Amino acid sequence: MRIVLGVSGGIAAYKAVHLLRLLREEGHQVDVVPTRAALEFVGRPTWEAISGRAVTTDVFESVDEVRHVRLGQQADLVVVAPATADLLARARAGTADDLLTSTLLATEAPTVLVPAMHTEMWRHPATVDNVAVLRDRGVDVVEPASGRLTGADTGPGRLPEPEEIHAHLRPLLDGEGACPRPADEPAAASDPIRAEEASSAAGPLAGRRVVVTAGGTREALDPVRYLGNRSSGRQGVALAEAALAAGAEVHLIAGIVETELPAAGPRLSLEHVESARELQQAVAAQAPSADVLLMAAAVADFRPADYAAAKIKKTDDVDAPTITLTRNPDILAETVRARPARGGPTVIVGFAAETGDGATDPLELAQTKLLRKGCELLVLNRVGEGLVFGRDSTEIHVLASFGVQGVLGDVEPAHVVGTKREAADAVVDRAARLLVAAGGRF
């Protein structure tokens, strides 16, 4: 596919470099068309090195090729990320004062604009009007993400992550027609604030509620010490972000995490817990109203049987204390068992962190756990020193119960090696496919 990737002059231009790489790795021919301001953030050599194509910004460069018209005419897809408030205004007005706006004016290919700007600029009546007009013309103006902006500001206006943009483009890249668009309600489509509140993302989980657990748990021994684990929470956060990108309403139950949590918003609510029993209560309260439950939290199997109200002292005349452990509740199995009576998720996804025991392969242990727990899907992580914990990369196997293997067409466990976001996308995709196919229970 021939793609034009426009880049306008915002600080988020650096994210477009990764988007370019994702497109190139799929074999697409990508012509990068930055504005002059964009080159202040990311230089021409970077774009040319990754795209393998010459980069120009002005209509008077490569005049013999009539580049300002040919790029748009020959494109199968035009994407602008980031699209600043200024770029949106110029696109709406139909100006052609540089190569990017000339290309936008000359193309008949599907056009996707991915805005990035400060919240006040996104909500300004001029921008609201510009977005409404562009959408009325058939341009796909993607809703910006909500989160940390330049400086200390936070709110809607953040450029979505490159993986989210890439996922949004998937239908076009696969030749399946238009990208998912906001619902055709005029007020929601023309007002960015109302569009957020209306859960405008029309992905495969639009209108669905997803509950995600993330991070580790801590089991108090005394007021100072606790039993814990090495979970960073990154996989759980990636799952929440993937579910949001798929259009879901997400409730994230976060235990102890060592990564930045996404900002709460119209489609994302946050709840914090510490111990396994607190997590048990939170899941029991949230599961009955969920369509999907993603149990990515690393829950402690045991806790101290006795809690010392005062710090346990180390003295020379006292032997080292013996700590007696008691078993924590099996939250995953409990939720599956409670589902027929209390209602709840159509799809429950468990996670298994396995090291193997020298005699048994982790995949065999995960198969046994899937049968024992009774959930629809189980995600196996091979863990240990230097593996998975705290890293952006991961390797997972997604196992399906016998009852849903035929639905997915995945008799063998799906195998994903890549970033935790790529793993999350694979898990969320399977959950969404099960929901569509199920129409009820398995």
Could you please describe the fold and organization of this structure?
One of its GO terms (molecular function) is ligase activity. It catalyses: N-[(R)-4-phosphopantothenoyl]-L-cysteine + H(+) = (R)-4'-phosphopantetheine + CO2; (R)-4'-phosphopantothenate + L-cysteine + CTP = N-[(R)-4-phosphopantothenoyl]-L-cysteine + CMP + diphosphate + H(+). In the C-terminal section; belongs to the PPC synthetase family. The protein folds into 2 domains: about 1-195, Rossmann fold; about 210-440, Rossmann fold (3-Layer(aba) Sandwich). Helix 3 packs across helix 5 and helix 11 (about 235-245) crosses helix 16. The strands form 5 sheets. It has an 8-stranded mixed β-sheet with strand order 12-11-8-13-16-17-18-19, sandwiched between helices. Helix 14 links the parallel strand 16 and strand 17. The protein has helices at about 15-25, 45-50, 65-75, 85-95, 100-105, 120-125, 125-135, 160-175, 185-190, 190-195, 235-245, 275-285, 330-340, 360-375, 400-410, 420-440; strands spanning about 1-5, 30-35, 75-85, 110-115, 140, 145-150, 155-160, 210-215, 220, 225, 250-255, 270, 290-295, 300-305, 325, 345-355, 375-380, 395-400, 415-420. The longest helix has 19 residues, at about 420-440. The protein is α/β, with parallel strands linked by helices and about 450 residues long. It is elongated and about 85 Å long.
